[in-house]
Design brief:
Blueprint (H helix, E strand, L loop, with lengths): L1 E8 L6 E3 L5 E3 L5 E2 L10 E5 L5 E5 L6 E3 L2 E3 L1 E3 L5 E4 L2 E8 L1 H4 L8 H16 L7 E13 L6 E7 L1 E4 L5 E2 L10 E6 L2 E6 L5 E3 L6 E3 L5 E4 L2 E7 L1
Parallel strand pairs: 3-4, 14-15
Antiparallel strand pairs: 1-2, 1-11, 3-5, 5-6, 6-9, 7-8, 7-10, 10-11, 12-13, 12-21, 14-16, 16-17, 17-19, 18-20, 20-21
Amino acid sequence: MATFIEIVEGANEGSRIQVSEGMTLGRTKADIIIKDPKVSSTHAEISVNTKDQLVLVDLESSNGIHISGRRVKKVTLLPGVIFEIGRTQFKVIVVEEELAINFEVFVTWRSKVINGVRQSAVVDGSASSKPESFSPALKLQFIQGIQTDEEIILGYGPRQAGADSLDIELLDEEAPREAFELLPGPGMVKIKINAVGRVTLNKKAVDAEILKDGDLISVGTTLIKVSYL
């Protein structure tokens, strides 16, 4: 039998990951990365108990592991068990070994966007706007905050960033639901800030600006460096 954990609530909802002894879960330094500001860098580890069952063990994290609102030190990964790490909720699923190869699924912002565009096309009969290329491509490098070391390469737009965005998700606790948009133009990219003051460009409150190499976008404690490729 193969054991999976499925994200039933939180970022990357719908993802299913096969787990095994020795694997770690965490926000940045782990085998399974959980994009959740309430999750520690290395939050928990999977071990095997005396009954040869997989067990998720808390690694002295700040917010722990919870089952039905109660904090626990460890969770035996039995079929149907639901547990929470930070704001992310998981469900344990066990399948036959021969089904495992086709059972693992990773749901990313890109797949959500593509699916959303398809659904909107069915409702409206056509996509609401035609994407245009960023030429040259744009790189967003997170150099401070919870998403430090994350990089996003953008080849087309428009793109939307925010706490609830299915496109560029901002995990900072102070991030607005709709933070900013990136709009294509000839040889450049324009930033349109939807939460003026809460989002700044080079420490200044602006409505819109043409982005230049080295520009810094600030959202809460998060700092994003802009560069063209």
